[in-house]
Design goal:
Elements: H1 7-14, H2 17-21, H3 23-44, E1 46-51, E2 57-62, H4 65-75, H5 90-108, E3 123-124, H6 127-132, E4 137-139, E5 144-145, H7 147-154, E6 162-164, E7 170-173, H8 182-192, E8 207-211, E9 226-230, H9 231-238, E10 243-246, E11 252-255
Antiparallel strand pairs: 1-2, 3-4, 4-5, 6-7, 8-9, 10-11
Length: 275
């Protein structure tokens, strides 16, 4: 065989050498090799989270076969480009898909409690940050978030108002209130059927409920002031280049920036309207 095959193929053939020279012990040897491989895989599995100076995380590790299959099954459908104009690299799409998986897991409410509280992302901010886009928000890990990010997170979050004294002590904490949930979100799903951004195929479970006119600016929590957006396009809209509105038939349409379309003709998502 060494005279017929290149080294890579010869190595693969070598793993089956017992099938040829000692078939009576091949099955037992294969079982022993499989068990040894399983022990090695179990021993070597790990995920490392390394915090960088600016609060980001470097993610590295080795997944065993089962976990690798689960991750690929969950993340692969989310890594496809959202459209022909998607500017993200494959690595950036995998990053955003991983974030979408985390959002979905948090929405289920099935995660174990952490410190006596449901698993959640906690952001501390001021009313001025939400209303006037001034200042920054702070995660409970200490990482600072831009006003744009805070406003985007507030679109589909539970808000817990608090009044602080001059030295930062808590004087009064209000009751938590959900923004777009229950019957209102179900009506939004029936109307938009998924991410409403033109060309996007993300289903409702991957989407946030975005306030067209932000609630901190006086926008109402109603079907006429809401639209479903996936995480990627939610960030896209909050950057301010695209404008979203409801058309005469009550369905969302998006006005592209002038650099993309000088005529700025409204665009709609036709994917979810397919029959």
């Amino acid at each position: 065989m060494a005279g017929q095959f290149e080294p890579t193929l010869l190595r693969k053939l070598g793993t089956r050498i017992l099938d040829h020279v000692a078939p009576e012990v091949a099955d037992a040897a294969a079982k022993a090799a499989m068990e040894a491989e399983a022990r090695r895989t179990c021993r070597d599995r790990h995920v490392t989270l390394s915090e960088l100076r600016d609060g980001r995380l470097r993610l590295s590790g080795i997944l065993d076969g089962e976990a690798a299959g689960l991750l690929r099954a969950a993340i692969d459908p989310l890594t496809a480009p959202s459209g022909p104009d998607d500017p993200r690299s494959p690595g950036q799409r995998r990053h955003d898909a991983f974030a979408d998986l985390c959002r979905l897991a948090l929405r289920t409410g099935d995660l174990p409690e952490h410190g006596g509280e449901p698993a959640q992302v906690v952001v501390t901010t001021s009313f001025e940050t939400l209303a006037r886009r001034l200042g920054a928000g702070t995660l409970d890990t200490g990482l600072h978030l831009t006003p744009e990010t805070v406003r985007r997170l507030a679109c589909d979050a539970a808000i817990l108002p608090a009044v602080l004294g001059g030295s930062g002590q808590t004087l009064d904490v209000g009751r938590q209130r959900r923004l777009i949930t229950g019957p209102l979100r179900r009506a939004l799903v029936l109307r938009d059927r998924g991410c409403a951004f033109p060309g996007c195929d993300r289903p409702p479970r991957w989407c946030d409920a975005h306030h067209i006119h932000h609630w901190a600016d006086g926008g109402s929590t109603s079907l006429t002031n809401a639209v479903l957006l996936c995480g990627h396009h939610h960030r896209h809209v909050h950057r301010g280049e695209w404008t979203v509105r409801l058309g005469g038939d009550g369905r969302p349409e998006f006005i592209p920036p002038a650099w993309l379309d000088p005529e700025q003709l409204p665009r709609r998502n036709q994917y979810h309207r397919r029959t």
